[in-house]
Amino acid sequence: MFERLEDSTMAQIPTSAIAAAGLVGGYATARWTGVRPLGGVILAAAGTVAAREWHRRTSPTTTALLGAGYVAAFAGSHPLAKRIGAWPAVFTAAAAVAAASYAAADR
Question: In 10 A of CB 2, how many CB atoms?
Fold first, then answer.
């Protein structure tokens, strides 16, 4: 019973929103608390939830590609931040992940 309720609730939340929220929320948590590992927990938790939904909605290959994109966006936001600033880099990375996730899993 609880598994079905959870699945139906998760099916209503776009994975693009979950992934973008993980990137933005992870950075915001790390910045405002000063505890970088706590931001990492938020990032990882959202990534895990998104990956679970990607796996449920798409193929293993698509799930792996979206997961790699999530990690690449996180990593890529760091050098990008040196050029355009931290928040713009995080929002750019989040938008890229959200667009890919929407195209591959949410449409």
Answer: 6
